[in-house]
């Protein structure tokens, strides 16, 4: 990838935030399926937060980054893919953030396998459009799940993550982003330290930012199309 791509995306994030009168969000570079060279390139340009969908793939990449020119840079690894409970131990040890906590069993499993000396940053994934096939808890389940997370010293509740129904027209996702922001504000009112609303991808991040995203997850627009689906 060329150097101007990261610069261009960061400029787009600033422009979208400025236009909407919102704070500039963090960029999470979604590196799933991308090779280590592509990740190292971004690290050398200053990007420090990466999103992965699979525990195994992230483990390999994280180890590879520790052994390259990028070594020594403090990187953050975020799990943004669905997490099965039987992978919770590995995920708790590997990631700095998990965006996809959506059930009490996962809260307990992650907490059990994480040391309280470096708490795991956790987002609750909400099924914001109530899609039958989707992961994420129902909006009305957020308060109880948040309380469960807040009670675990090994976990740090940071906010919410949503993936709206992928309507062909991104503008149709705006009401979902807006509902997510309202849920997020309610959560932040109840829990100190809630500061992250993870929403917006390559084709809709400007809309998500206008509606209050504090972190956007961008893959394709940064790296180009993925060679295989993930
Ligand atoms: C792949 C993925 C992204 C990035 O999507 P792009 O359209 O490539 O920007 C963001 N969030 C999640 C949960 C993903 O799985």
TrEMBL record:
<dbReference type="InterPro" id="IPR001608">
    <property type="entry name" value="Ala_racemase_N"/>
</dbReference>
<feature type="modified residue" description="N6-(pyridoxal phosphate)lysine">
    <location>
        <position position="32"/>
    </location>
</feature>
<dbReference type="Pfam" id="PF01168">
    <property type="entry name" value="Ala_racemase_N"/>
</dbReference>
<dbReference type="GO" id="GO:0030170">
    <property type="term" value="F:pyridoxal phosphate binding"/>
</dbReference>
<comment type="function">
    <text>Pyridoxal 5'-phosphate (PLP)-binding protein, which is involved in PLP homeostasis.</text>
</comment>
<protein>
    <recommendedName>
        <fullName>Pyridoxal phosphate homeostasis protein</fullName>
    </recommendedName>
</protein>
<dbReference type="InterPro" id="IPR029066">
    <property type="entry name" value="PLP-binding_barrel"/>
</dbReference>
<feature type="domain" description="Alanine racemase N-terminal">
    <location>
        <begin position="8"/>
        <end position="226"/>
    </location>
</feature>
<comment type="similarity">
    <text>Belongs to the pyridoxal phosphate-binding protein YggS/PROSC family.</text>
</comment>
<dbReference type="InterPro" id="IPR011078">
    <property type="entry name" value="PyrdxlP_homeostasis"/>
</dbReference>
<keyword id="KW-0663">Pyridoxal phosphate</keyword>
